[in-house]
Amino acid sequence: MAYIHVDRAVKFFPREDGTEMLVLDGVSFDSKAYGITCLLGPSGCGKSTLLNVISGLERLDRGRVEIISNHRDTGARPPKLGYVFQDPRLLSWKRVEDNLIFALKGMKVPPSEWQERVHKYLDLVGLLEFRKQYPLYLSGGMRQRIGLARGLVVQPEVLLMDEPYSKLDQLTARKLREDTLSICALLKQTTLLVTHDVEEAAYMGDRIVVMSARPARVVDIFDNPFSALERNLDDVHFIEFKKKVLQTVLNLVKEEV
Ligand SMILES: Nc1ncnc2c1ncn2[C@@H]1O[C@H](COP(=O)(O)OP(=O)(O)OP(=O)(O)O)[C@@H](O)[C@H]1O
Ligand SMILES: [Mg+2]
């Protein structure tokens, strides 16, 4: 069991003119344990900044972010995180399997486990037969699948995904969302997925945290009434739920203009 606890997170960035810009304005939420939590907010509101805080790349000015996990024997060890980015950032000179092994080495996973892990996660994303291929010879969608396998192969306590489908064409993105949803459900993978797409959030999120434009505040939190495997984009009840989330986002836009 693992989840992210964000408590009154405040973050400023310095501006060129020496003043400070408020980016996160007291953001608080708990992510789902075992499920996908979507952070839904407009461009520039501070979603990636919050991921950077969770991964330790940025520090908060006030408040705290904690990963609560019963896989951790001591508080001293940093939490194990997996990352999937908008651009899969694969090493082009390494074969697919070596890209995954690179991540395993980084996490100090013993070499005796590498083959089994690589096999399991490439199989899950449906690309086992491409394990000896170089990323350059794969399609964009396939590369993003390898990115997902690389994020999962370290068996992270929390998987962080930052707009992972936004560079893919509509059909590829749709298929990859479906597959990510069932893989994460199967693995009971605690995941934080950043998006600015309402339909994606309603489809992927067991919990949806709606954020305002910068400075980001949490405006609403929805728990999805449908379990991961019951969600159907064309179902009238799902469409009703999506509309409810959309209405919250539209009300925000109205307040801001
Ligand atoms: N290291 C930094 N130094 C100064 N300002 C920064 C830094 N990183 C981000 N910002 C600013 O903080 C704000 C939030 O940026 P962030 O990248 O977190 O937004 P976002 O919600 O992820 O946007 P997008 O949806 O476009 O990816 C932006 O105005 C950005 O310019
Ligand atoms: Mg971003």
From TrEMBL:
SMART domains (UniProt xref): AAA (SM00382)
Matches recorded under CDD domains: ABC_NrtD_SsuB_transporters
Q: Name one GO molecular function term.
A: ATP binding
Give the highest taxon in the source lineage.
Bacteria
Keyword Transport found = yes
| Keywords associated with the record | ATP-binding, Nucleotide-binding, Transport
Enumerate the InterPro entries for this protein. AAA+_ATPase, ABC_transporter-like_ATP-bd, ABC_transporter-like_CS, ABC_transporter_ATP-bind, P-loop_NTPase
Q: What is this protein called?
A: ABC transporter ATP-binding protein
Q: Which organism is it from?
A: Tectimicrobiota bacterium
